[in-house]
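By way of example, what follows is a protein record of this kind.
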Amino acid sequence: MSGKTDVKKIKATSGQAGKKHGGTAAIFVFLLAVGIFMLFPIYLTLVMSVKPVEELFVFPPKLYTLRPTLDNFSDMFRDLHSNRVPFSRYVANSITVTLTVTLLQCITGSMAAFVLAKCRFPGSKAINSIIVVSLLYQSNVIYIMQYIVMAKLHLIDNPLALILPSVASPMTLFLMRQSISQMPDSVIDAAKVDGAGLFRICWQIVIPNQKPALMTLIIFAFQGAWNIQSGAFVFQEQYKTLPTVVSQAAASGMAKAGVAMAAAVFMLVPPVVIFMLAQRQVIETMANSGIKE
């Protein structure tokens, strides 16, 4: 009886192991298909950026190129130059706006999220509800109001018109508030007993333990700031950002399709690099740290 029971257990265990391996293989195939589907636009952009002009208008379009060339990139640098502003100026404007917006979003968003998550004051629940509702609105909805405010402040044709509206982000507040809310109140109460003020508790105790949320915030903030269009608030060529001149080149017609794709590849590199660096920090921090009661 004992031998038969052991055989049955072995068969049952083997069956469970087979089902487990089959489920893992199905998940792997599904994720592989989703990954290929998501990478296809990037692949197509890369292929279009190295296609010669005569291959861009071939019908039906091909997913590869017979004679790859870097002429589109050289044409991009040439075409995006104007009489007074070199291409490097557009890049510098985008880098300045992106780094400034990312830094200010992290500072102001972290401080405001700490107050909303760990401080009790009249109207805190209403403010949290307003933040959640504001996530439903896209930036295009408030362009007219933003322009009126910037005009009243005399900031039209000023780089600050690109920076200030992007500093206050509902997504930043929501993300950081949700993360800080999970921190035990006992840690903050212990710091208050030791005589620490709110500012010190925020920057020396709470924020250093929010590294995964901060890295995620940097990814979203950098990507959003890098793609800021300056056409609505800035009209002088010397203050325009790279996405603006790229969109202008893309609007020149099909003849500039290769140049537009080359510029899209150029603009894709910084967000991808930031994502890879920040994602690594997020994974390492979530795996090796944590706060528990």
Summary: DSSP finds 13 helices and no strands in the chain. Residues 285-292 have pLDDT under 50 and may be disordered. Residues 2-49 form the longest helix (48 residues).
